[in-house]
Amino acid sequence: MGPVSPQCQDLELPHGVSFNFVLSLYITSTPYDCLISILTTFLPRSLILIGILVSYLPQHLRIIRLRSSFGLSPYFVLLGTTSGTAAFANILVLPRSAHDVACCREISGVSCFAGLLGIFQVGVQCLSFYVILLLFLIYFPRATSLTNPTTSAESETEPNGNGNADNDDKLPSYSTAVIVSITCLAHAVIVLIISLAVAIKHPSNLQAWANILGIMSAVLASIQYFPQIYTTFRLQKVGSLSIPMMCIQTPGSLVWAASLAQRLGAEGWSAWGVISSSIRL
């Protein structure tokens, strides 16, 4: 591999750091500069990536285990999914991200992977919320079901099944879940088309478009929990909503926002600002 350009030197890890090296357990023989780079760059960002994935697993598993998405607000799912789409599109169109991707032709594979971990983190978050959307639709309680659609989700809090008739009146219709799913997909397609158009026709406006996406994501993320709070309060039970997911994501988001801010700097405010705004809720 040839010399690294000055623009890409901040992404290059010390010589000798490779995937095999990172996976090796022989830390005692690790050169000091390599060890510092791993402990301050590669390892924290990798742990954040794993943490994001793990934080959503309780919600996925709870819906699957209960075989019902009862208790989840369709508007919470709508706002969360569209916010994740805008956040992922935001970090993809950021000029800094394009710079990091271009540097992968000059730096080592592990340096490239470490440099793109911020993109992977937002991508995993977006994908995880799309999984929630899919499970929400698949396991949505049908009002036309021959059996009570809320039984499995309520069994933990109401063993005797009392109050099911009242809860049926509070359930959104299946058509609402379908409309939410279609809206999320349509939003993703529209964002993709506009992003490609700006990148091809007006590349100088990518930073402005990224800022718009970041603001859109921040606004959606800042209000996404209100429908869920209202739904939980109205039903007087959490249903299939995962409390562990909320508990993990609250402190984890603070660390994630700090990591993105350190990597993207001031020009990436629209990326890490989204996470900062959602922490407040």
Descriptive overview:
The termini are far apart. The chain has one domain. The radius of gyration is 22 Å and the shape is globular. With 281 residues, the protein is mostly helical. It has helices at 19-23, 32-66, 74-93, 95-103, 109-115, 117-138, 151-154, 164-170, 174-201, 206-223, 225-235, 243-264, 269-279. The relative contact order is 0.16.
Major sheet = none
Question: What is the structural class?
Answer: mainly alpha
Whole-number count of domains: 1
Choose one word for the global shape: globular
Could you tell me the number of beta strands? 0
Query: Using only CA atoms, what is the Rg?
Result: 22 Å
Strand content: under 5%
The parts where pLDDT drops under 50 for at least 5 residues are 19-29, 144-163
Membrane topology: Multi-pass membrane protein
GO cellular component, one term: membrane
Subcellular location: Membrane
Transmembrane segments: 35-57, 69-93, 113-140, 177-200, 206-226
Structural key phrases:
281 residues; mainly alpha; membrane; PQ-loop_rpt; transmembrane; transmembrane helix
